Amino acid sequence: MKKTNTILKSMAVASVAGMALVGCGGEEKAGIAPEVYTDSLFAVMKADRTNYTKLIVKRLGPSGAASIKPAEHWKDLENGAPLPAQMFRAGAEEVGRLTDKFTYSLQSTWPINKQNAPRTEMEKAGLKYIEENPGQNFYGTEELGGQKYFTAVYPDVAVAEPCVTCHNDHKDSPRTDFKIGEVMGGVVIRVPM
């Protein structure tokens, strides 16, 4: 990750340079390092996703409850509820309607839904990095459509049995040997610079 480290060091230098202007009568710049910003966003996303999985889905399914049934085609069921990945995607879509300051998505190199496969070289590199380096995050910059972005990729780990069961048993899953605690994909957060 020399490239990523170089980018982050450059950002740190730029930040320090910005602060140096304060003592010379320049305009004070307040800000937050991009990795601190995306780390904070990810902490909220991870907490919500983990809690929904453990506190709601795990208690209801996959064996199910009579009142609410988490299911892939939940909209077709009178008592259906979205699966954790679908809940996460719904949140990302709602954030997209509320702000253009950042975007996020859940992706995997083993996606059940092909829409969740990585598309950019940065996404592919980020997912590969977090798969090969458990517990580590990936940071980098990329330019898409003439816009420069700070892009962070965080591991999405199987936190409960329903995660593993759903992916291992799904007919469209390209991988069927997931275990609790393994990286199943990644959360990609992108911030325009």
From TrEMBL:
Pfam assignment, any one = Tll0287-like
User: InterPro entries attached here?
Assistant: Tll0287-like_dom
Tell me where in this chain the Tll0287-like domain is found.
Answer: 40-192
Q: This protein is called what? A: Adenylate/guanylate cyclase
> What organism, scientifically named, is this protein from?
Oleiphilus messinensis
Source organism lineage? Bacteria, Pseudomonadati, Pseudomonadota, Gammaproteobacteria, Oceanospirillales
